[in-house]
Write a structure and sequence with these properties.
- This protein is of the alpha/beta class and 613 residues long.
- 36% of the residues lie in helices and 24% in strands.
- It contains 19 helices and 27 strands.
- The strands form 5 sheets. The chain has an 8-stranded antiparallel beta sheet, covered by helices on one side. A 7-stranded antiparallel beta sheet has the order 5-6-7-8-12-13-14, with helices on one face. Strands 19-18-20-21-22 form a 5-stranded parallel beta sheet, sandwiched between helices.
- It binds 6-O-phosphono-alpha-D-glucopyranose.
- The site of 6-O-phosphono-alpha-D-glucopyranose has 15 residues, from helix 10.
């Protein structure tokens, strides 16, 4: 969702900004733009659609010069997708231009106020209102510099923002600020590269300034300072950027999604590495050690997330109750946040998020912290907002996930939640032997994933048989009910095929009416507690002419007589099976999208990181 890149230094800004925009394409967007200050003043070029279109526009005018500039990919919220609404926006009095990620909630009242004072608006966006407000305060002669005007404007706004602002009258200054939306300032050699995430920075800097909410940074080629919106000077926070450039390059793969599916054996092995003490049957999670008493004594655990992360959180709920015997529940962060939730004493809230920036998950976290819960993050992106704002947490360590359809983050989240459940279980009533046995099995998961990946050709063949079908069902029970939800989500996200996931038993309560001749129904039917019951559900689908595709345990011959097609996975402990059973479903969705000719890594309307509620 909206990406910001900005540059101040001694090099030409345009190539750096375009390179950064391309790195941020995966976040999802519908228009792009760039502004720079040069001998001609402030120049802004924008284009609807892909960054490629912006590049063509730039080529047609011979490019724009200048070594200070801001750029943006816009994912429309306020106002349709068109040239005028694309960022950067500008005011016409002082040559102030800004890019913004987030939502200014009180933009309508601010706009009315500014209109009454004679300001004219040219777009439907909340961002233009913020720009105009900055311009309204701007008066260099009276000491209202760009920095001071940004501070003054931000004192008036409600909502979320990450911004980068430049001004023709102060051509050597850039001002950035954030509240709620992500922004990092990479420190180069006599230059700063500002971006929504590290992928646009790592090629040029190894360290970055992180901004807390309500802080403002003033950057010049000679240095920077950070302040609050009330102009109180802050001690800057600098972090090392751990991401390697190779991690965000495509390599030999045609799509990031496929690359990340194939990275899972290695990524999960890295996630588990050094965290399983099989001799003691104890999980070692640095972040949890100081909170182990509170965790072990907790009365209730609430898991909250959105999207794919919600599906792994649902599996977490099963794991915590099953293994650690602690009452647990899982809820959409967006619902949890606004329903006046009851947080009793000794409650723990676990926020699960790949990006660590999802606005709903962040809001749920704030709400539960305000109500006294201990908060824990299960996050992939190091230093992200949720990671910083939770009391403690566990990183996934699966490496950057660029594909919009989440894959390795899902298996990583389930692996971490399994370790958290074991951490608590072993400190409550699980025996060292039982715990060590599960750990040994968990350690085998990367190899099992690898075995499933080796059946990719077969998965592709089966997908091709059904790819023309417009409606699919995904059914599972117990631990694999959330896996069914995830299989359906993957398929609809990138292939735009309508798919529903549900508990296999629920099918009889309505959705069975949809089943007709040839409808593909995917069952997660690996051998576990509810295997026989799943077989009965398969019979019910067959009786109505549906085509059954089963994800089943290797060596299961019975299933072959019931299902049209079988996708085999290795024998695996039931509580660990979602990490293995999801792999054929990820590949199925991938092949379906490619066979239908869709751009897998840039699915329509989707954003990788949803930073608005
Ligand atoms: C978006 C993405 C999903 C992701 C969800 C939650 O919808 O497209 O892939 O699962 O956000 O994101 P998070 O970063 O919190 O895991």
């Amino acid at each position: 969702m909206c990406g910001i890149v900005a540059y101040i230094g001694n090099k030409p800004a345009q190539p750096l900004l375009l390179e950064g925009l391309k790195r941020l394409e995966y976040r999802g967007y519908d228009s792009a733009g760039i502004a720079a200050i040069n001998g001609k003043g402030l120049q802004i070029i924008k284009a609807v659609g892909r960054v490629m279109n912006l590049e063509k526009e730039l080529e047609s005018i011979g490019g724009i010069e200048g070594s200070i500039g801001i750029a943006h990919t816009r994912w429309a919220t306020h106002g349709i997708v068109n040239h005028a609404n694309a960022h950067p926006h500008q005011d016409r009095d002082h040559g102030i231009s800004l890019v913004h990620n987030g939502i200014i909630e009180n933009y309508a009242s601010l706009r009315t106020l500014l209109e009454e004072k004679g300001h004219q608006f040219h777009t439907e966006t909340d961002t233009e209102v913020l720009g105009m407000l900055i311009s309204h305060f701007y008066d260099l002669g009276a000491g209202m510099s760009l920095e001071k005007s940004v501070q003054a404007a931000l004192r008036e706004v409600r909502g979320a923002y990450a911004i980068a602002v430049i001004c023709q009258q102060e051509p050597d200054v850039m001002v950035c600020a954030r509240k709620g939306s992500p922004l990092l300032i990479g420190i180069g050699n006599g230059e700063y590269i500002v971006a929504s995430d590290p992928s646009a920075i790592v090629a040029h800097a190894t360290t970055a300034i992180t901004l807390d909410d309500y802080s403002v940074a003033r950057l010049t080629r000679d240095g920077f300072r950070t302040t609050t919106v009330d102009n109180v000077e802050l001690t800057p926070k600098i972090m090392e950027l751990e991401m390697e450039l190779e991690e965000i390059e495509l390599g030999d793969f045609p799509h990031y999604m496929l690359k990340e599916i194939y990275e899972q054996p290695e990524a999960i092995a890295r996630c588990l590495k050094g965290r399983l003490d099989k001799n003691e049957g104890k999980v070692v999670l640095g972040g949890l050690m100081n909170f182990s008493k509170e965790l072990v004594k907790s009365r209730r655990i609430i898991l909250t997330a959105q999207g794919t992360a919600l599906h792994s959180a649902m599996i977490g709920e099963y794991l915590l109750e099953d293994l650690a015997k602690i009452p647990a529940e899982c809820e959409y962060a967006s619902e949890f946040r606004y329903r006046n939730p009851i947080i009793e004493d000794r409650s723990v809230v676990i926020a699960v998020s790949q990006s660590g920036e999802t606005a709903d998950t962040l809001a749920a976290l704030h709400e539960s912290k305000d109500r006294g819960a201990l908060s824990l993050g299960v996050i992939n992106v190091v230093g992200s907002t949720i990671a910083r704002e939770t009391d403690t947490g566990v990183y996934l360590r699966v490496g950057p996930e660029i594909g919009v359809a989440s894959t390795k983050a899902f298996t990583g989240q389930v692996a971490v939640l399994t370790m958290i459940a074991l951490f608590m279980a072993r400190r409550r009533m699980m025996s060292p032997e039982a715990s060590a046995r599960l750990m040994r099995e968990l350690d085998r998961v990367p190899d099992m994933i690898q075995q499933v990946l080796e059946t990719n050709d077969r998965i592709k063949e089966i997908t091709a048989k059904y790819v023309h079908r417009e409606n699919w069902l995904f059914l599972g029970r117990g631990y694999n009910y959330p896996t069914a939800l995830e299989g359906a989500l993957k398929l609809k996200e990138i292939s735009y095929i309508h798919a529903e996931g549900m508990p296999a038993a629920e099918m009889k309560h309505g959705p069975i009416a949809l089943i007709d001749e040839g409808m593909p129904v995917v069952f997660i039917a690996n051998q576990g507690n509810q295997y026989e019951k799943v077989l009965s559900n398969i019979e019910e689908v067959r009786a109505r002419g549906g085509h059954v595709i089963a994800v089943a345990t290797e060596g299961d011959k019975q299933i072959e007589s019931l299902a049209e097609d079988v996708l085999y996975i290795p024998q695996v402990e039931e509580c660990l099976s979602p990490m293995v059973a999801v792999i054929p479903l990820q590949l199925l969705a991938y092949h379906a999208a490619v066979l239908r000719g869709h751009d897998v890594d840039k699915p329509r309307n989707l954003a990788k990181s949803v930073t608005v509620e």
